[in-house]
Amino acid sequence: MAGSSHLHYAALMTGMIVFINLALRPIVKLLNKFSSSSASKDRLFQIRLRCARADERKMRTFLVQILEANNLHLYSTGVNEDETEVIIIANIHSEGPIERNIELSVSQITIDPRITRTFWCALDKMII
């Protein structure tokens, strides 16, 4: 429009576009916040740790304390045993991105010298 000597219309249209962008941005941010929180799903993760059979009970208690300290919810547990060692399997669930909390928990668990191996992964199953 400015090229065809309609400077008033060009200035008016530019002003409208700038106003609309500035006025609608907070509304869009607010809507995005509400839409992402209502569509969140629980995610499942699994932590496995290996220790001596004699330490199994202490390691289960230690695992629960670490998970609670990092705001993770224990979904189920299991044990795979052999003659000298056990593998404690803990399934964990929580809403939203919790990978950082799981990494923190695993790093705290790994520090204990009674644990010979740790492993964690996200499970493909999603809970709605």
In short:
The chain has 128 residues and is α+β, with helices and mostly antiparallel strands. The protein has helices spanning 7-38, 56-69, 99-110; strands spanning 42-52, 73-81, 85-95, 115-127.
Detailed description of the structure:
There is one protein chain. This protein is of the alpha+beta class. The protein has two domains: 2-38; 42-123, ACT domain (Alpha-Beta Plaits). The protein has three helices and four strands. The chain has helices at 7-38, 56-69, 99-110; strands at residues 42-52, 73-81, 85-95, 115-127. Strands 2-3-1-4 form a four-stranded antiparallel β-sheet, covered by helices on one side. Strand 2 (73-81) and strand 3 form a beta hairpin. Helix 2 (56-69) runs antiparallel to helix 3 (99-110). The longest helix is centred in the first third of the chain and has 32 residues, at 7-38. The two termini are 52 Å apart. The mean pLDDT is 84.
Overall pLDDT level: 84
- The percent of residues in helical segments reads 40-55%
Per CATH, the architecture of the largest domain is: 2-Layer Sandwich
How many distinct domains? 2
Structural class, by secondary structure, is alpha+beta
SSE succession: HEHEEHE
What are the segments in which pLDDT stays under 50 over at least 5 consecutive residues?
Answer: none
Biggest sheet statistics: 4 strands, antiparallel
**Using DSSP, what is the number of strands?**
4
Query: What percentage of amino acids are in beta strands?
Result: 25-35%
CATH class of the largest domain: Alpha Beta
CATH superfamily of the largest domain: ACT domain
* Number of discrete helical segments: 3
Radius of gyration: 26 Å
Overall spatial form: rod-shaped
**Terminal Cα span:** 52 Å
